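hi! just following up on the protien thing from before. the input was this:
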Amino acid sequence: MNESGALDGTGLLVARIQASDGNSSLQLSSQLPVFAINPWDVMLCISGTIITCENAIVVAIIFYTPNLRTPMFVLIGSLATADLLAGVGLILNFVFQYVIQSETISLITVGFLVASFTASVSSLLAITVDRYLSLYNALTYYSEKTVLCIHLMLIVTWGVSLCLGLLPVLGWNCLDDYSSCSIVRPLTKSNLTLLSASFFLVFIIMLHLYIKICKIVCRHAHQIALQQHFLTASHYVATKKGVSTLAIILGTFGASWLPFAIYCVVGDIDYPSVYTYATLLPATYNSMINPIIYAYRNQEIQRAMWVLFCGCFQSKVSFRSRSPSDV
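and the predicted 3d structure came back as:
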């Protein structure tokens, strides 16, 4: 007995098999109420809850802290907002899956999730571009031109994400043609292929930029050491730390999303749904890790968190405002 590999409803509802008279007949969860809760759906809901809580704190801190208005924090805020929406989408998917079963709601929810995760990945690319510009054009980074560039990246990021999220709602879905469904129903195979191809393009660009960033960091560290007429141990430590941080950032992103993106291309609707869940769940973990990598490690945000949760916080420690190039 094989389960369907397509995720129904919001793109995450699983087609179930109902045995009748010794034969297996496919019954979609949208046709009959099913009260058995899929453990995979529970894990996705838990993941969404953690993602929502983590990123809600980051969004609140950046929104209510006037000092966090530099381009770097604006991009981090964009990333946290996208991940926050993705977490909310995962929670709503679980609720609608087991409470309200409607094709209209399914299309809206899957479009919401597509837009949110697309904005998350695009915001990561924007942060990478910002880090590269802060190193490549260090002298002119804090100019109005940089601010304009950041705003343009945000407009493109959210504009493209919104358009991709609206595609299933506007008709690019497989509700009327089951044979065209992808492993994530109601997205069509062509729609999911487009999303996967977009991810691969973003990943390649990020890889290229981080390699350039790594070269610049190593060159700057070497030049500083030469100015001191000798290579100190701190030179190697600083260089190694910078390269390690870049490797962790890119490695986490790739390990989270690559399995699902690859399976979206090679997978088929008739494959067991466990494969889809097993690759999708780690992808959601990226939105869980993002605030730790990009926000909670930042000293300005750490200080703002102390002020937020302990209003009487007083410290004599000087917190240095970090630039995007502080990797």
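The CA atoms of residues 194 and 202 lie 12 Å apart.
The chain has one domain: 39-309.
cheers
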